[in-house]
Amino acid sequence: MKSKLLVFMQFFVIFLMILPLGAPTATLVYGLILIGLSALVGFLALSKNRLGNFNIRPDIKEDCTLVTTGIYGLIRHPMYTAVLMSMLGVLVIYPMVYEYVLFGVLLITLLIKLFYEESMWKCESQEYRDYIKTTKRLIPYIF
């Protein structure tokens, strides 16, 4: 139930953020660059996750394997990074107060989802406990 609620919150906030409630600003190009980079990060993550491990819910699938190569060698949650980057791009294009608030809600939701997912992996896998010693969560070399 917690997983489904977190996924619902994530997609609901994304939906609210992309509603066309304002005119694009002069920062349109910068926002589009962020969105393009986020698509690249997402593509790199999905290309490494061809084994059927990908899951939008923060639940561990049965018989899944830990991916630690490619972009996963730099960060443990590249899809969350891609979502945050794309919505930051939206925020740059539409820098309005409600977008800042929604981005904050999205960030908190994804952090809760991330910590929940990691807690399950830590219980299940020594390999994951070793993996977290060499990688960051969302931003290479930082967090």
Describe this structure in words.
This protein has helices spanning 2-18, 28-48, 78-93, 97-124, 126-131. It has 143 residues and is mainly alpha-helical. The chain has one domain. Helix 1 packs antiparallel against helix 4, helix 2 (28-48) runs antiparallel to helix 3 and helix 3 runs antiparallel to helix 4. The longest helix has 28 residues, at 97-124. It is globular, with a radius of gyration of 16 Å.
Based on the model shown, name its key terms.
143 residues; 0% strand; single chain; mainly alpha
Major sheet attributes: none
Query: How many helical stretches?
Result: 5
* Chain-averaged pLDDT: 90
Q: How many distinct folded domains?
A: 1
Low-confidence stretches are none
Strand elements, count? 0
How large a portion of the residues is in β-strands, by DSSP E? under 5%
Provide the helix percentage: 55-70%
* Category by helix and strand content: mainly alpha
Which descriptor suits the 3D outline?
Answer: globular
Order of helices and strands: HHHHH
Radius of gyration from the CA trace? Answer: 16 Å
Cα separation of the termini: 28 Å
List the helices and strands and how they pair.
Blueprint: H1 2-18, H2 28-48, H3 78-93, H4 97-124, H5 126-131
Helix pairs in contact: 1-4, 2-3, 3-4
Short structural summary:
The protein has 143 residues and is an all-alpha fold. The protein contains 5 helices and no strands.
